[in-house]
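Quick one:
INPUT:
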């Protein structure tokens, strides 16, 4: 967006015509990035192995109709959003997200698609001892989280670590997660270098939709790819703080009013979808110390 290659208000299909199939031709980039496209997962069960075939996954998603009318509600898309955003980025930029991350932010220990030589550095995750609470289960929540093929199999395998799944297998450190999200806290600058203009920063972080999410059992305020703190108060008290939580408790956020960014990662996952108590205690202590 900063380089003029993408417009949040343009339709996804204007860049990626195949996406416009099955009633998706009017979905905007902003709607897709704020989980309003009606694609929380596959609408019928799939073999989890499909996620390891990027072209097959994208063809399947392009042919699928929205599971609700786009633009009328949000419905968190835990895995699909990474494939959609990743392909749109590749079309307009020519690089994968993983390659761009390494080239545009050199020195960060963050990887989307981890080279095999780095695999022995990775801590092993321990799954939650109980499932997450999703509220009343319907076909939309099932598609997002509960179908056998709702997420890639083989988590932690060499194949899983090596492919690029922007929404699921970022590898890195809490310090460098905080540094990159700190671009928002620092007015668009990274290590003193301007990377986002005020206009683009506002377009990326302003509220795109607010209300009861169709997948998460919460009232959500979504920006273009970020969770807004408004109504949740999981990133301190500032409603304009933005960030994202990951399955099991990890999170990263930025508070522009305080010029603050922070991140939390862990090896033992909890069942909390957002607002893990461990992260909340640390965030509370951080603000108490200011």
């Amino acid at each position: 967006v900063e380089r003029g290659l993408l417009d949040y208000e343009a339709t996804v299909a204007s860049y990626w015509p195949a996406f416009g199939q099955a009633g998706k031709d009017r979905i905007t980039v902003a709607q897709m990035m704020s989980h309003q496209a009606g694609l929380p997962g596959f609408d019928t069960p799939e073999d989890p192995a499909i996620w390891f075939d990027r072209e097959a996954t994208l063809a399947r998603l392009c042919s699928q109709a929205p599971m609700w009318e786009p633009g009328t509600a949000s419905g968190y898309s835990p895995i699909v959003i990474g494939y959609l955003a990743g392909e749109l980025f590749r079309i307009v930029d020519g690089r994968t997200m993983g390659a761009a991350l390494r080239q545009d932010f050199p020195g960060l220990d963050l990887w989307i698609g981890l080279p095999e030589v780095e695999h022995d550095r990775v801590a092993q995750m321990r799954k939650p001892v109980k499932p997450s609470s999703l509220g009343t289960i319907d076909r939309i929540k099932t598609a997002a989280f509960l179908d056998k093929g709702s997420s890639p199999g083989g988590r932690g395998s060499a194949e899983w670590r090596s492919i690029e799944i922007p929404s699921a297998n970022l590898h890195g450190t809490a310090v460098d997660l905080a540094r990159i999200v700190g671009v928002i806290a620092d007015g668009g600058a990274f290590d003193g270098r301007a990377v986002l203009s005020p206009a683009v920063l506002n377009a990326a972080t302003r509220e795109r939709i607010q209300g009861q999410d169709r997948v998460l059992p919460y009232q959500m305020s979504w920006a273009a790819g970020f969770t807004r703190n408004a109504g949740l108060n999981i990133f301190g008290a500032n409603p304009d703080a933005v960030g994202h939580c990951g399955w099991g408790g990890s999170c990263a956020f930025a508070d522009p009013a305080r010029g603050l960014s922070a991140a939390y990662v862990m090896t033992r996952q909890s069942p909390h979808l957002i607002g893990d108590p461990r992260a909340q205690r640390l965030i509370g202590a951080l603000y108490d110390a200011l």
